[in-house]
Design a protein that fits this description.
Length: about 270
């Protein structure tokens, strides 16, 4: 089990290099930059990011709100072009997980049929899955709380989508922040089981784990029961990353240990 953090590998290179995180989770839109076809600029970003000394193994924020994936204005050609660049650059960077939260893109318009939106989304994922697999990338669906999106708000809903897609290139993410917002039981993690391919950890208001004393052990125990052995990323709103990251990783590793969830330590 590896513990990482969502962060800019370029902006925070020195802090990450000195930390004990096992990996970094970057941002598709600001790091992979699929909208920018300048390959020289991409190679420069990639070289700068590698200076952090940690592998960049995941990336979030897959689609911008300007590329709706459901509703009457879906542009499949534009999404496919975006995804093709994102997946290709992800492979070059060593990124194995791309997080499909993207609440703005995924939001169902008020006057649009929800069942049709679900059909659109499943159809899109079935097309994106082989593209992702060709670059050794897994696309993970992130259930979001209702304040951020009106579509896929629980692990059970996300699991139903993943099962409908029925492809190894599409899996599920569990985010404790959204689960807390929606008062979703850790038992949903156990029900998801082998569909889970990534985890985000954050408490209420996304503060760093040590700031509110939140107990993540029920979620970690559920991950243990589900047989989860993938990555866990801290997705916090850091106010002082340099001083907050180390105690956060220590706290989470200690909580994981008491929940019998084995986590590696970066050396």
């Amino acid at each position: 089990m590896r513990l990482g953090t969502c962060s800019s590998a370029i902006t925070n290179a020195a802090i990450l290099a000195a930390s004990d995180v096992d990996f970094v989770e970057e941002n598709v839109q600001t790091f992979l930059c699929p909208a920018n076809s300048d390959e020289a600029a991409w190679n420069t970003r990639l070289s700068a990011a590698r200076a952090c000394g940690k592998p960049i193994q995941a990336a979030n924020c897959f689609l911008p709100a300007s590329l709706p994936c459901v509703g009457p204005q879906v542009d499949h050609h534009a999404i496919h072009a975006w995804a093709a660049t994102a997946f290709r650059r992800a492979e070059q960077a060593g990124i194995a997980i791309i997080v499909f939260g993207s609440g703005g893109s995924r939001r169902i318009p008020a006057d649009f049929d929800a069942q049709e939106a679900k059909r659109q989304f499943i159809d899109l994922l079935r097309k994106l899955a082989p593209m992702a697999e060709a670059h050794h990338v897994t696309l993970v669906i992130e259930p979001l709380n209702v304040k951020e999106c009106n579509f896929i708000n629980s692990l059970d809903e996300g699991a139903a989508i993943v099962r409908a897609v029925a492809s190894p290139g599409v899996r599920l993410l569990a985010d404790t922040f959204h689960m807390i917002c929606e008062r979703e039981s850790p038992a949903a993690i156990v029900r998801a089981g082998s569909l889970l391919a990534h985890v985000h950890v954050a408490g209420p208001q996304r503060v760093p784990p040590t700031m509110n004393g939140h107990d993540f052990r029920p979620y970690f125990r559920a991950l243990t029961d589900a047989g989860y052995s993938g990555m866990i990323s801290i997705e916090a709103s850091w106010s002082a990353l340099a001083s907050q990251l180390a105690p956060a990783t220590v706290e989470l590793r200690e909580q994981a240990a008491t929940a019998a969830l084995t986590m590696t330590t970066c050396v």
